[in-house]
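Example record

One chain of 179 residues, shown exactly as stored in the release files.
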Amino acid sequence: MEFYVPIKYNPYVEERYEVSTLGHIRNRKTGHVLINQQRRQNGYASICLQIGNGKQVTFYVHILVADAFLPNPQELPEVNHKDQNKMNPRLCNLERCSRKYNMTYGDIVDRIITAQMNHSPEFICLETGLIYRNQSQAARELGVKRSNLNLVLNGKRKTVGGLHFKWLYQLAGELSYVS
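Predicted structure tokens for this chain:
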């Protein structure tokens, strides 16, 4: 069963918006459920609400649900998604927790280790043949922005400082197909 309670942020918000146990946000005056939830870059469901004085704030939906329905007597700083799905802000899927618990919950450690094993941090400059292990250091040595170097390595930009770069694991994969 779905229950709604006012969102406690400030009097303006409390008067206008409610959050439900299923993660829905609705307008208290009209009863209409707001459908403008978005997925943030970090994967979490969020919603932008007016907070008064012509201002608006983006809220994470799971935090709104937890603050409304999950007691926090130990003052735990984080909210964990039990099913590891950041887009599932239902009350039954949330629990208060410590940072350490949240960072080691479920298969997150296995996923990080697997990613590290399958993705060597080394990358190569295709023009010079130099191999680098650290983007910040390479950017300093080459006089380029680290963020632009990262964009090249992740295929979102072609060059940085007129140079091409590839992850070694990608280059190894390409070379193995050459006959």
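Notes: The first helix runs from residue 11 to 16.
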